[in-house]
Records
---
Amino acid sequence: MTESLNASWPLWEVFVRSSRGLSHVHAGSLHAPDATMALRNARDLYTRRNEGTSVWVMPSDSISSSDPDSKGGFFESPQGKDFRHATYYTKSEGVKHL
């Protein structure tokens, strides 16, 4: 009975920010009836050993992505727009974090 109930619940994607990192990283997926339960279940499943400082959940069907099979055309830089690459710029003296 639990399997059929979980199958009717939406799928949620879980992102966790660890205590040593700055970015949220995809940790996995889970089924839950709503955002509140998804967040609680994500905390229980993906931060059991106090490795997280923040958890995000979002419905899987809200994610849009590019097609990995067409990455060449999608990520290819248009010809004549080399200025978009940082290789043509020099670092200014005294500017940190560049």
Note: The longest strand covers residues 11-18.
---
Amino acid sequence: MKLQKAFALLSATIFLAGCSNDDSSTPMNSTAPVGSVTYNKDVKSIIDNNCIVCHAAVPTNGAPISLVTYAQVKEAVLKRSLIIRISLENGNSVLMPKGGPRMPQETIDIVKQWEKDGLFEK
């Protein structure tokens, strides 16, 4: 009987260990560590004040995408070079916001830090 209990305990331990999330790129907790830059607290207002005029729910002025939601902005950082586009120098034809002027470096640095901190929403 003791052997059966030991086997059952061992089996349960192995089973539970196999259920862990080993993908470190996906945070287990969607809330950012204290002091981190987050979308809701820091980045949303930057996007709203500088990008939404063209990147609205229905994009205008030739904008190819909407930047209204957290998911859309995160996707733009990860797959559409948003940080590169806002970091270009005045006069570059692909600088965003379109036609410039370039956002202040301090503002760009907040978006860069958001990416570095893990692109947390809140």
Note: The CA atoms of residues 77 and 83 lie 6 Å apart.
---
Amino acid sequence: MKKLKNHIEEMLADYNDINDNTRMQLELINQTLAELQTKKKSEEKSCRRIGFIQHEE
């Protein structure tokens, strides 16, 4: 029983480590996407002329 208990505890610790790593990676991906979205919005705003109507052909 003691051996089984130790094995289960090791498996749960490994599982938690994987979850923590995955959570950190997803957090970094979300932060990067948010930064890119903000950067894209600011670039779009700076390209528009005020007072002019642009017609697409």
Note: The chain has one helix and no strands.
---
Amino acid sequence: MKQKKVINRSAYDPSFQFEVLSSHYSSGESLSVTSFRYGINRGSLCRWKNLFENHPESLSLS
């Protein structure tokens, strides 16, 4: 029996998450197109979007 490959949810650096979200908002692309372009799961992008919208202090990267 094959085991599922599980990726740690914190595998993406917050600066990468911010870059992807910035690109998404500035381009006006759909979540599906943005996630495909960056090679990430659409669900991850939705989660990041909700996280940053609900916690705007997370957007300030030092």
Note: The chain has a mean pLDDT of 80.
